[in-house]
Amino acid sequence: MRLQKTARKKAAGSTGEPGFSLTERAYRHLEEMIVTLQLPPGSAVSETALSQRLGIGRTPIREALQRLARERLVAILPRRGIIVSEINVKSQLRLLEVRREVERLVAKSAARRATSEERAQFIDLARRFEKSAKTNDDVAFMRVDRAFNDLSVMAARNEFAAGAMSLMHSLSRRFWYIHYKQAADMPLTAKLHADIARAIGAGEEAAAGKAMDRLLDSVAKFTRDTVTTDF
């Protein structure tokens, strides 16, 4: 019982933020658990167990799992239950082809359309990225990255790009997390993100696009390198 309470408290403390609905809270908890491999690829999960683990009712858990299924992080299989999706390098490379075009558009649009308040938030995110780079803190980086993605989509004000981004980010973040210790440089990745955030904050549209290209060049190299890495 004590272990269950500790697990619920830890999960709630990791992503719990005021103002979110129960479904959004459940989604954020579960997405982070999948991305950071607390729920590893191929593992079976159940609404009941997740509800008990997070201290959130089954209906929000079910709705969160349906969203995660749309994002291809879980598969809901008749008579087999819910399975955390496996990872596929070739699929990840195809995803990057789309991600490059959409993320460049989002970065440039955000630099052009962000409000003054949002620009200040981007500057703050740049500092937080740099802090995670200095401390080499992978979980802190993942949480700042999520905040950056959410703010970028909001500031870009393009609902079609937002829909495409929602289908790509979690898969990309999980792939990076599972392989970065073998094939990537986390501090460099954090610094490349900081460059994008700072360019958006400064309203420099061309610089934001170029900074995004540098990041995705690095991500593409990292993805290809995982093919020859023993993981």
Structural class estimated from helices and strands: mainly alpha
Unreliable spans: 1-16
CATH class of the largest domain: Mainly Alpha
What is the 3D shape? globular
CATH architecture group name of the largest domain: Up-down Bundle
Radius of gyration: 18 Å
What is the assigned CATH homologous superfamily of the largest domain? GntR ligand-binding domain-like
**Range of strand content:** under 5%
Helix content: over 70%
Determine the CATH topology of the largest domain. Four Helix Bundle (Hemerythrin (Met), subunit A)
Task: Describe the protein in words.
This protein has 231 residues and is mostly helical. It has two domains: 2-84, Arc Repressor Mutant, subunit A (Orthogonal Bundle); 89-228, GntR ligand-binding domain-like (Four Helix Bundle (Hemerythrin (Met), subunit A), Up-down Bundle). The chain has eleven helices and three strands. A three-stranded antiparallel sheet has the order 1-3-2. Helix 5 runs antiparallel to helix 11 (205-225). The longest helix is centred in the middle third of the chain and has 25 residues, at 89-113. The radius of gyration is 18 Å and the shape is globular. The chain starts with a helix and ends in a 6-residue tail after the last helix.
Summarize the structure.
The chain has 231 residues and is mostly helical. The protein has helices at residues 2-15, 22-35, 47-54, 58-70, 89-113, 116-135, 138-156, 159-166, 169-183, 186-201, 205-225, and strands at residues 44-45, 74-77, 81-84.
